[in-house]
Amino acid sequence: MKSHYVFPASIEKRLQAWNEWAHGQAKADKSPKPCITISREFGCQAYPLAESLYERLNELSESGEDWALLDRLLLDKIAQESGYSKSELKYITLVNPTFQSMISNVMGTEHADPFEVFTYIKKTVRYFARIGNSIIVGRGGVCLTQNMPNVLHVRLVAPLSFKVKIIMNHLDLSEGKAREYIEACQDERDNFILHFTRMDISDPSLFHMLINNEKSSIEEMTDMIISRLDTFTLN
After folding, report:
1. Could you read off the pLDDT of 191-200 as tens digits, one per residue?
2. d(CA 136, CA 7)
3. Considering the entire predicted model, what is its pTM?
4. Spatial distance between the Cα atoms of 107 and 99, rounded to a whole number of angstroms
5. What is the DSSP letter of 72?
6. 156 and which of 23, 40, 112, 225 could share a cystine (Cβ 3.0–4.6 Å)?
7. How far apart are CA 198 and CA 152, in angstroms?
8. CB–CB of 140/153 below 8 Å?
């Protein structure tokens, strides 16, 4: 079995590993390589799926070229290394855009402009996608790379009852609180993507694959995506 690269647990080490990976990939063959974006309804298992794909794709790689995983923690850390604070990254997802100018008048300019921060996130996501051999989880990746022919877009969906069970177990919430949390988080994320990309993240036409998380295990979903990737044409 191929000895494959695994990101260390420490996010600082992961950042260093990402830099080494990116520099190595940038020097490699310029021919397009595949990239995968994973979107989800809140409560679906996007992160376990991404980790499973990351492990399997590195095991299957015959060219010696590693795959990289870009999730929220790594993307936020990359942004922080470029001068943005944790509060600024959280601010752009929590502040209702309708009230941004009003809040700025009250709070002053302690926060970076949300569009400036999102533009940075967009550049980072598209850089990963352009290099290829990368898995991009969330952050509107499907919208930000929609015009890139080397990117396979996947979305996880599930009945509310399934998502409620996941959140109840993960956050130790009651059923009612889990439902409220899912609704609030889904609205927040949908509004965030709509505001910054003018795209509806729930539009099925954005995706190559829609997978019902309730009906497929992590292993089964991993197999399906890799099988689709094998037939994916970089046109």
Report:
1. 888 888 889 9
2. 15
3. 0.74
4. 12
5. H
6. 40
7. 20
8. no
Beta strand pairing call for 209-212 and 151-157: parallel
Distance CA 202, CA 190 (A): 8
Token representation of residue 100: 């941004």
User: Which secondary structure element, helix H or strand E, spans residue 165, and what is its range?
Assistant: helix 160-171
CB 164 within 8 A of CB 218: no
> How does DSSP classify residue 200?
-
d(CA 196, CA 117): 11
Q: What is the pLDDT of residue 191?
A: 85
Q: Which of 4, 153, 147, 15 is nearest to 64 (CA)?
A: 4
Angstrom distance (rounded) from CA 227 to CA 230: 5
Express each pLDDT in 44-61 by its tens digit.
Answer: 999 999 999 999 998 887
Q: In angstroms, rounded to a whole number, what is the distance separating the alpha carbons of residues 106 and 117?
A: 20
Residue 103 host element (H or E): helix 100-107
Q: Beta partners for 14? A: none
104 in Cβ contact with 7 (< 8 Å): no
Closest CA to 221 of 164, 158, 156, 165: 156
